[in-house]
């Protein structure tokens, strides 16, 4: 298993994994969007510099040349920049009645783990745990000392994983029609980057 930053060529393998999250969220804005059209938009997003190594970072778990897991995150103050990618791509797609607008999920002062997904056929093999262990490097690189995330009240398996990895509940919030726990992990001082 290799944990590494994603490349544009990974986008077609990342998209179906991220689509699992969209399915779980049951967003009403996506009810009438055909699956292939949504996958096309997600794939395009994960080919952008913004998603791969710009405002956000995408990290993949690769096994036997295949992407089997993905983590996507960014400093909270960059959420508008990151969300603008999907808004712009959905505005350009005829499959969307109107551009997809995201709700606020994070805040300044934390590196926000927006998404974590593992191929269902590969779950239970520690892939999610390995991705979570890799994230402090990227958070510190972005000069953050806290990683934050939200987890659905109805996803106790994910909640247990995050708790085992040291995340603690710091609040709750509503996104779409779902209630989420807001969890954080203190990771210490950001690395300093020499000029």
From TrEMBL:
GO MF annotation: an example: acyltransferase activity
Keywords, comma-separated and alphabetical: Acyltransferase, Transferase
EC number: 2.3.-.-
Superkingdom, natural source: Bacteria
Residue ranges occupied by any N-acetyltransferase domain in the UniProt entry: 1-192
Pfam name, any one: Acetyltransf_1
InterPro entries per record: Acyl_CoA_acyltransferase, GNAT_dom
Keyword Oxidoreductase attributed: no
Matching PANTHER family: N-ACETYLTRANSFERASE
Protein name: GNAT family N-acetyltransferase
